[in-house]
């Protein structure tokens, strides 16, 4: 057995213009399963920010009418290759990952009105407009991917302070945007 298939390797790669298309294809598949429950669906995370390096995992944010109904779709989601992880550390979320060691997608599902939806969208939108901070984020992720090549927790913890700082800026910035 190839040991590389059993260890999750943290790597960030140059932006791939196909990530948007991959998101759209996957969103359609998910919608075909959960469509009656989905109120909104978005491409989030670093793969949604053009021109910056990212882990090649498409993050998808889904807002649903009733979070309690999401668990009913677990078997159908498994047929698409997803692993249902329940709340997975965030109260009120349903998290799915596609691929254990060679992940391709993460689904973050929240009930409409959950503040996590706005937080994720504000972060993405802020980074799309503030290229200097997006570049700083890219630099940090590159450094952390080298330092924590086999340690996803260390990688994520290393980004935590930066993300919290951007979350605060993005929340204030979002208040000034024309709706």
Automatic annotation (TrEMBL):
InterPro entries xref list: GrpB/CoaE, NT_sf
Superkingdom, taxonomy of origin: Bacteria
Name of the protein in question: GrpB family protein
Provenance organism: Anaeromicrobium sediminis
């Amino acid at each position: 057995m190839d040991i590389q298939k059993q260890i999750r390797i943290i790597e960030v790669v140059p932006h791939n213009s196909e990530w948007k298309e991959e998101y759209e294809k996957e969103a359609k598949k998910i919608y075909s399963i959960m469509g009656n429950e989905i109120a909104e669906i978005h491409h989030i995370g670093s793969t949604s920010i053009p021109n910056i390096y990212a882990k090649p995992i498409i993050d998808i944010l889904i807002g649903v009418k009733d979070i309690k109904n999401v668990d009913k779709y677990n078997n159908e989601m498994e047929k698409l290759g997803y692993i249902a992880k329940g709340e997975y550390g965030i109260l009120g979320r349903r998290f799915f990952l596609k691929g254990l060691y060679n992940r391709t997608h993460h689904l973050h599902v929240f009930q409409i009105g959950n503040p996590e939806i706005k937080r994720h969208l504000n972060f993405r939108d802020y980074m799309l407009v503030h290229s200097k901070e997006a570049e700083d984020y890219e630099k940090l992720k590159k450094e952390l991917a080298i330092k924590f090549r086999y340690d996803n927790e260390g990688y994520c913890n290393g980004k935590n302070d930066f993300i919290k700082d951007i979350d605060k800026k993005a929340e204030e910035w979002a208040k000034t945007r024309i709706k």
